[in-house]
Amino acid sequence: MKTVRLGAGSGYWGDMIESATTLAKHGDLDYMGFDFLAELTMSLLQGAKRRDPSKGYIPDVVPWMRQLLPITHERGTRMILNGGGVNSPAAGEAVAAEIRRADLDRVRLGIIEGDDLTDRIPELRAAGVPLVNLDTGDTDFDSIADRVVSAHAYVGSESIVEALEQGAEVVIGGRLADSALYVGPLAHEFGWTPDSGQWDAIGAAVTIAHVIECAGICCGGMSSQWKDVPDPWNIGFPIAEVSEDTSAVISKVEGTGGLINQWTIKEHLLYETHDPADYRMPDGIADLTTVRVEEIGANQVRISDMTGRERPDQLKVQIGYTDGWIAEGRVLIPWPDTLEKADRCEEFIRRRLEIIGIEPREIRFDRVGVDALGGSMISRPSSDPEEIEVRVAARVETRAEADAIRRELTHFTTAGPVGTAFGAQMKAREVIALWPTLVPRHLVPTNVAVEEVTRRAHIAS
Amino acid sequence: MPTLLHDLAYTRSGDKGDVSNVGIMAKGSEEYKMLRAAVTPAALKRFFGDLVTGEVHVYELPRIESLQVVMYGALGGGATQTLRFDETGKSMAALMSRFPIGGDDDEQ
Predict the structure, then answer these.
(1) What ipTM was predicted for this assembly?
(2) What is the CATH number of domain B3-101?
(3) B-chain residues within 8 Å CB-CB of A397?
(4) pTM: predicted TM-score of the whole model, two decimal places
(5) Which of B57, B81, B87, B98 should one mutate to test binding to chain A, selecting the residue with the greatest count of A CBs within 10 A?
(6) Which of A287, A312, A337 is the last residue before a domain boundary?
């Protein structure tokens, strides 16, 4: 039976490059996917692009491709990345430069665009798209319309498949859904395309993609099994060997750290998937309730019996808009009387804010080491801890107010109790709030351009 | 003394916007039965108190003997705007591990 070997080379912007190069060298891979994007990333990258039109892609793409291209080119492994961020063409130019630097010949590079809707919002609204907030049900888009900084659709794998059909060895896009990075090659190899109507197979592809798309996080990373996970500092990234019958074996390169067993795969099937019978991705809907998970060897888990349903007609779109500022600061309080000093700190800040006339939209005091994570679920300790870090976070309308609140923490160290330690305070940060919504698929066409990067072109230019 | 969820299951949490999810994996079939009975939306709302302001859903995955808990309004506005230290709610899984199972009554 035909099998295809997929590897995950990155699960987030800032992931471990050594794990990626080990996987590329020893994973015997047909394809490698690289996810670099989180919910806020596109807004941050839009800001970078506004300041410099040659930016807006994930800067890590350059060092990663520099290290990986010589390895993958020699082995015939094709790479798919969403590190194009909000500027895939610029990422493409940077990667082309790396191809030339490595003196590789005839590398086909596919660049995907079409997911960026930042400048198309008025047009979409004119076409009757209501842009209702998916999480809150809020229909008043006008309330944020003039503060929008980014709008991006999570797009599926059609353009990836097209690029692969045109022989692309490296495919770079923007807000390609994480799952699309892996559904694309499977659709290309096995014909699991929307036209084929093989929704169970596509559901299986979405499920397999979900399991590996966070890289080390299905291999004992961020794991409930952490005590049993060997050498996490050398964590192996996952390989999915996918069979034509839609089952897959998840494994990793022998000798790497990390752990793959039923628990690490189950915890990842559950990770951020919400209603398990209705895991919606642009390429199809996966039903995670039918999946079978079997340990078949050391660090080898087989997943099978996946099912799915037809892809949704609408794509999820994440809109980012500015919504005030956050000031955050911390002081470290030593024993004795740690609890009482922490109370004094809170009272001090509240009184000072009254005096300087700032009323935050929201303010929060944490006693780090006591209740910063558990909040009201945690009862007050019966004895004084050795140390308490008091953390103050406040949401205000302007940067000036945010800076003023941070200054009050230094006033606490000088006007408050003896022994209060202060480090470098954090900078105020602008809030980019998110407005998730839906846009009909037919209004978000993507396109791909495949070009061949050759030595000759380099010499000629 | 009630048993803690920690003794019966493994947990791990994640975020999407202001929605927190906690995956609960039973350590065995008996444990899965006990969890299904005890981990209800109403009990979870009581347990998390003001940390969760919205609806709570509990989904069952019998083939992997796991529950998926999805809680709305659970992250102080979501990673990009929350004032919480734990912006992405990774620690919700740890808080969940203290959820009481059984005991004399349903109260905490």
Answers:
(1) 0.95
(2) 3.30.70
(3) none
(4) 0.96
(5) B81
(6) A312
